[in-house]
Specification:
- By secondary structure, this protein is an alpha/beta fold.
- It is globular.
- It has helices at 14-25, 51-55, 86-89, 99-112, 162-165, 236-247, 293-313, 318-330, 332-347, 352-361, 372-382, 385-391, and strands at residues 4-10, 30-33, 48-50, 65-68, 71-75, 81-85, 94-97, 116-118, 121-129, 132-140, 143-154, 177-186, 194-198, 208-215, 218-226, 252-262, 271-272, 275-277.
- It folds into two domains: 4-41 and 100-170 and 267-330, FAD/NAD(P)-binding domain (3-Layer(bba) Sandwich); 48-97 and 173-263 and 346-394, 2-Layer Sandwich (D-Amino Acid Oxidase, Chain A, domain 2), CATH 3.30.9.
- The chain has twelve helices and 18 strands.
- The longest helix is centred in the C-terminal third of the chain and has 21 residues, at 293-313.
- Helix 1 (14-25) runs parallel beside helix 7 and helix 7 (293-313) runs antiparallel to helix 8 (318-330).
- The protein binds flavin-adenine dinucleotide.
Length: 394
């Protein structure tokens, strides 16, 4: 590893990979470091993504697609099921990825573009000069060293520490950190082309439980509940185990992961002198779905673009880097995050009876587009009072 780069990217997930690829393509010397010994493992994700969203970055490849979906089903607490079918929705639903392969492909493309890549290499502190980030202290395969850089892009995921070390407030309120557990289960009866979302206080308080297919009789079966609901006997795993015992009693668990998903508003500012923050580290996960793969790639690529321009111009001050912060907030993604934050705040107040009512109101739904935003518009159309209740939220 060299001791000096134009741009140092911390984290080898989708945000870091896109940032490194974009910056390397712009002709800069780039170093991507990943603390784990292998890119893409362990997978901490249910691996769902919309087809249109994915295509913005990469052409689909069967090597990293586990399931090509045709429908999504939302199951209300009373068991009523809203089925959103591709044929009725008129467009494509989505994929379940194989992130072990997908994340590697993204990093491979960054390497192909010219970025250096180091696994088993952890950033342990920023190098600071006169209040500006100028690189990172790293431990690479047990060896400590300083890597200086004009710009650091912190793409270190939900557990992000780099931005905090550099002085940004990255705290996520407990109630806005979803506590998640997921089993990769096999030998279970599932619909191999449907993503199923189960709602209800008894099933997943302030969250939802998902069954995302990974093959004919295999699926990611997981749950996210609000951190403030999690205590002895009512932890995410307790809810998941109850569900599994009821629905998949003969199933075999071949992987067990835990993880957090932030559903708070994004960081108030995602840049500082010499620093940009992208992906989960910037808290840009969709607060309703908990989906963050697309947003990570979107902000990673944008950080790579704006960061490259600033490095070329010879100024990586906070003022210069603000173009990135302003651009992603003004984008469709940024506006969706803001709207969905309010809708999420509304949804978590609903009891099971209200959830059943809302689900009932969607009976015979025929959506022209398969999107969360379209679903919300339909809900408002059929439940006009909801708009007033939403407007009352800050
Ligand atoms: P990450 O993918 O987390 O990558 C960050 C990387 O940085 C990690 O590899 C980490 O090891 C590395 N790192 C951290 N600190 C350091 C350091 N100091 N030095 C070097 N490297 C470091 N999103 C969806 O879109 N669809 C889903 O179905 C979905 N399901 C999910 C289910 C669960 C249970 C969870 C937990 C999350 C889910 N998400 C989902 C969210 C999605 O996984 C994340 O939004 C996405 O991975 C964010 O990408 P990222 O690059 O920002 O962060």
């Amino acid at each position: 590893m060299k001791s000096n780069y134009d741009i140092l990217v911390v984290g080898g997930g989708p945000a870091g990979a896109l940032a490194a690829k974009t910056a390397a393509e712009a002709g800069h010397s780039v170093c991507l470091i990943e603390k784990r010994p292998a890119i893409g493992t362990p997978v901490r994700c249910a691996e769902g993504i919309g087809k249109e969203l994915l295509k913005e970055f990469i052409e689909p490849d069967e090597r990293w697609i586990s399931a090509d979906l045709q429908r999504a089903r939302i199951i209300a607490p009373n068991g009523a099921t809203i089925s959103l079918d591709q044929s009725r929705a008129g467009n494509e639903v989505g994929y379940i990825l194989d992130r072990k392969v997908f994340d590697r492909e993204l990093v491979w493309r960054a390497a192909e573009a010219g970025s250096d890549v180091f696994v088993k290499t952890r950033a342990v502190a920023p190098i600071m000069e006169n209040g500006a980030v100028k690189g990172a202290k790293v431990i690479s395969a047990g060896k400590a060293m300083d890597v200086s850089a004009d710009l650091v892009i912190a793409a270190d995921g939900v557990e992000s520490k780099f931005a905090r070390w550099a002085g940004l407030n990255t705290t996520v309120p407990l109630g806005e950190m979803m506590s998640c557990v997921q089993y990769l289960m096999t030998d279970i009866p599932i619909d191999p082309v449907s993503t199923d979302f189960y709602l209800g206080r008894e099933i997943a308080p302030e969250g939802y439980l998902w069954v995302f297919p990974k093959g004919d009789r295999t699926a990611n079966v997981g749950i996210g509940i609000s951190g403030r609901q999690s205590r002895d006997g009512t932890r995410a795993r307790d809810y998941l185990d109850r569900f599994v015992a009821e629905h998949f009693p003969g199933g075999k668990i071949i992987e067990h992961i835990v993880g957090g998903v932030s559903i708070c508003r994004p960081l108030p500012c995602t840049v500082a002198d010499g620093l940009m923050v992208a992906g989960d580290a910037a808290r840009v996960v969709d607060p309703i779905t908990g989906g963050g793969i697309f947003n990570a790639m979107f902000t990673g690529r944008m950080a790579g673009q704006v960061g490259s321009e600033c490095v070329s111009a010879g100024t990586c001050t906070k003022d210069a880097l603000m173009k990135y912060d302003e651009a992603w907030r003004a984008s469709y993604m940024g506006k969706t995050l803001e709207r969905n934050y309010k809708v999420k705040d509304y949804f978590i107040t609903l009891d099971d009876a209200k959830l059943n009512d809302l689900a009932g109101s969607l009976a015979n739904i025929n959506m022209e587009e398969f999107k969360v935003s379209t679903l919300i518009m339909e809900l408002i159309k059929r439940n006009p009072k909801m708009l007033l209740e939403l407007r009352a939220l800050k």
